[in-house]
Amino acid sequence: MNSSKAQVSLEYLLIALAIISVLSILIYQITNLYNKNIQAIDNLELKNTSKNIQDTLDLFNLQPKGIMEISINPQQNWYLETTKSNLLKIKNKNKEYSINSNNNLFLKTKQITKPGQIVIEKKDNRIIISYYLE
User: What is the pLDDT of residues 39-91, one digit of tens each?
Assistant: First the structure.
């Protein structure tokens, strides 16, 4: 009689282990899918932001001075850098976009971590790019 109780206990233990294994595989797959979606959303937001910055810089080529704000919502860290005085690169860990300007660019921000505003200001034939939290 003790062996049948032990066998039932062992069967329950094996069933519990099987359920835990299936749940751990499901959790892994769901987490992986979530991370891929976050990356895709962030890449799209980065692309749209780079297009908005390029459009603003093109507009500022025609104006002696001006100021413009662009709302952003990064899901991951973004990085800004100027490789030449008139070339801006904006990137995350997956994508990179280059933005050209006819004016010298000056960055007040090198990293963007949270939703906020990119402020682009033209004065004295140079473009100043800043970032402010919402």
Answer: 999 999 999 999 999 999 999 988 889 999 999 999 999 999 998 889 999 99
Residues 82, 126 contacting (CB under 8 angstroms): no
**0.85 cut: is pTM over it?**
no
Intra-chain end-to-end CA distance of the chain, in Å: 70
Length of the chain measured in residues: 134
| Under 8 Å between Cβ of 57 and 65 | no
The residue assigned the tokens 């990119």 is 118
Q: Is the dihedral of CA 18, 21, 27, 33 positive or negative?
A: negative
115 token code pair: 């939703």
123/103 Cα distance (integer angstroms): 10
Instruction: Return the number of other C-beta atoms located less than 10 Å from residue 49's C-beta.
Output: 21
